[in-house]
């Protein structure tokens, strides 16, 4: 066996000869990837909440007034009265909006409060929420994780968007534990979205009273229990 001499390699180069090079197709495209350390595999969404530690109640109140002016609505005296006695340490006891008419723009004006403060209980009973306002406000409550206890009883005009927003709140909130939903007709669509949301929610109490549940909507909602999840306690008074 003889070893190939260096002279045998004369005329050869380290790169393949042209006849060995693959021909590029017309219009061929190339994809390159950055190093592993530069690849983004996920992200953490930042909630643009105000730094409460640097705020005073007077600043929160003033921010709410400016927000009302921006949205061309009058500040709610009931809200101003509650803010004046609210503590910035931990969750405030309650944001009571029972019986306050909240149209879409009034709901939008509340965001500066929800991004600054959280509450043990938010009462929206009989707030006359309409579709756009309900959708916006419930989205805010979810985004800022505003409360573990929400009452939205006696709101009959939430519409499809409002019910969808409520469904997302029930499914995605990590702090909502109790929901009161009384004196609202749970017809087929509301019963469907509510039952689906309950399958993956963290609710421990769902309070339903005078909801006109019967027939198929009742069976739809009752069927949630078959999955072994949903609210641990359902208070039903049909």
UniProtKB/TrEMBL annotation:
* Record key words, sorted: Leucine-rich repeat, Repeat
User: Which stretches of sequence are listed as region Disordered?
Assistant: 1-33
User: Is Repeat there in the keyword field?
Assistant: yes
SUPFAM superfamilies on file = RNI-like
Gene3D superfamilies, sorted: Ribonuclease Inhibitor
What InterPro entries does the database record attribute to this sequence?
A: LRR_dom_sf, PP1-Reg/Actin-Interact_Protein
Q: By its UniProt entry, which PANTHER family does this protein fall under?
A: LEUCINE-RICH REPEAT, ISOFORM F-RELATED (PTHR24112), PROTEIN PHOSPHATASE 1 REGULATORY SUBUNIT 37 (PTHR24112:SF9)
Q: What is this protein called?
A: Si:dkey-288a3.2
Q: Which organism is it from?
A: Salmo trutta
């Amino acid at each position: 066996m003889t070893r190939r001499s260096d002279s045998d390699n004369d005329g050869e180069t380290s790169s393949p000869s042209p006849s060995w090079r693959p021909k590029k197709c017309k219009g061929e495209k190339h994809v390159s990837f950055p190093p592993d350390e530069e690849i983004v595999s996920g992200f953490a969404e930042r909630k643009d909440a105000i730094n409460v530690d640097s705020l005073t109640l007077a600043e929160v109140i003033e921010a709410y007034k400016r927000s009302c002016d921006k949205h061309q609505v009058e500040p709610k005296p009931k809200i101003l009265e509650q803010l004046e006695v609210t503590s910035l340490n931990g969750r405030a006891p309650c944001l009571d909006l029972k019986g306050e008419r909240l149209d879409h723009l009034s709901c939008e004006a509340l965001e500066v409060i929800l991004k600054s403060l959280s509450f043990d209980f938010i009462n929206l009973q009989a707030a006359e929420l309409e579709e756009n306002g309900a959708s916006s406000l419930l989205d805010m409550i979810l985004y800022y994780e505003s409360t573990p206890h929400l009452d939205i009883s006696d709101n009959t005009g939430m519409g499809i968007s409002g019910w969808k927003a409520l469904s997302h709140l029930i499914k995605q909130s990590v702090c909502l534990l109790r929901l009161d939903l009384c004196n609202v007709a749970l017809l087929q669509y509301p019963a469907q979205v509510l039952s689906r949301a309950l399958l993956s929610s963290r609710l421990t109490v769902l309070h339903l009273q005078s909801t006109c549940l019967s027939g198929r909507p009742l069976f739809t909602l009752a069927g949630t229990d078959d999955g072994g999840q949903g609210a641990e306690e359902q208070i039903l008074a049909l």
